[in-house]
Amino acid sequence: MPLVAGVDSSTQSVKVVVRDAETGAFVREARAGHPDGTEVHPDAWWAALEEVLEPALDGVDALAVAAQQHGMVVLDETDAIIRPALLWNDTRSAQDAEDLVVEGGGPVWWADTVGSVPVASFTVTKLRWLARSEPERAARVRRVMLPHDWLTWRLAGAPAVATTDRGDASGTGYWSPARGEYVPELLRLALGHVPEVPRVAAPHEVVGQTRNGRSLAPGTGDNMGAALGVGARPGDVVVSLGTSGTAFAVSDLPTADPTGQVAGFADATGRFLPLVCTLNAARVLSATAHMLGVDLDRLSDLAMQAAPGSGGLTLLPYLDGERTPNLPHATGSLVGLTRDGMTPANIARASIEGMLCGMADAVDALRAQGVQPRRILIVGGAAASPAVQQIATTVFDVPVAIPPPGEYVADGAARQAAWALSGSAEPPEWNPGGLDVLEPQPVPGVREAYARAFATVHGT
Prior knowledge:
Blueprint: E1 3-9, E2 13-20, E3 26-33, E4 39-40, H1 42-56, E5 60-67, E6 73-75, E7 85-86, H2 94-104, H3 107-114, H4 123-133, H5 135-139, E8 143-145, H6 147-155, E9 163-165, H7 166-169, E10 175-176, E11 181-182, H8 184-191, E12 199-201, E13 208-209, E14 215-216, E15 220-221, H9 222-230, E16 236-241, E17 245-249, E18 263-266, E19 272-278, H10 282-292, H11 296-305, E20 314-316, E21 333-335, H12 344-368, E22 375-379, H13 386-395, E23 400-402, H14 408-422, E24 436-438, H15 446-458
Parallel strand pairs: 1-5, 5-14, 5-15, 9-12, 16-22, 22-23
Antiparallel strand pairs: 1-2, 2-3, 4-7, 6-8, 10-11, 13-14, 16-17, 17-19, 18-19, 20-21, 23-24
Helix pairs in contact: 2-4, 4-8, 9-14, 10-12, 11-12, 11-13, 12-13
């Protein structure tokens, strides 16, 4: 049986999943850690990938890399890395994002031109930060890549022309999903000159070979990989609860939201992926568990002991600043503290309600762009928590589906590799397994309390 591998090079680690190319049946997996931080030298990703990749690839015919979006990898004329990559969660370019929005023609212009209004996460804003803060380094930039571009390029033997895919390219802020092309004047506006950028490959194209002769598919961004891995279709909204929180939907039409809440991305199949991203998701729960001196299983148990509404406590979970809403310098706020309400159970539940209320606001932003959700698919590390699953039914107003636990970003990359290997017009139909579907049981007052707390703290 032909085998394929998918790589998920995420913020925290690299995972490799090997699957049967025809059925998607699981064969094996491997993983290694990445350094923590908001800037990381790409060599650390390569070292982690080398550690796990070759042992995992026995018998594999093709592979693809999915990776964290937006990260800025800059190379000089000798293809040497100029500085550590700024990652998606590095918010130092917040002012640069505001400046670019004004200089480029305003939020409506940006949304119409590249589908999104740039915020600090976007690559284009990091290039402006580089030009402003490190002009000597900026002047040396000959190539700009994203994390998955760079890893694919290295696996292919560092060819003269690097490749990317439309999904990851759509998160740069200088590629138009609607027109399917780069916007060079935005690169010049940000960096001061136009560097080389990767060629955008077709979704199922073979873009190169590894040194051992395995076929390389284009790869994609992590959210696009997750959509492909979970088999999302129109009407599905995927809520991914990893390091960041994302809500995204597969669409046949591009979106352009001048408010900046919804990023008008492309997906990994030729369609579109309107997406809302928050900086704070699963790490809100791990931070709360650490504060309470418990593990995540005990945090879930505690949260289930509290009533909906968390005894009047509301957490605005902006522990690392926030991307949506665009509050890069915000901090978290626990509102409504009283002696009676300040219990471990209420604090545990408030952490989950706060995280999920933020994601419910994200789903509402997708609705405002024409997305009509029929169900919510919850994936990511926090999706396994029984409390997260139960509390989600009280926050969302459509059925909540819980796919089996899996590495859906890596699975999506593997499915793309199988697609490239097959030469078919459409990706293979893999069955990710049965879904646990929970009917909505909205609890009045929970989301309203979250909205009041936001207005009190942030004035809108």
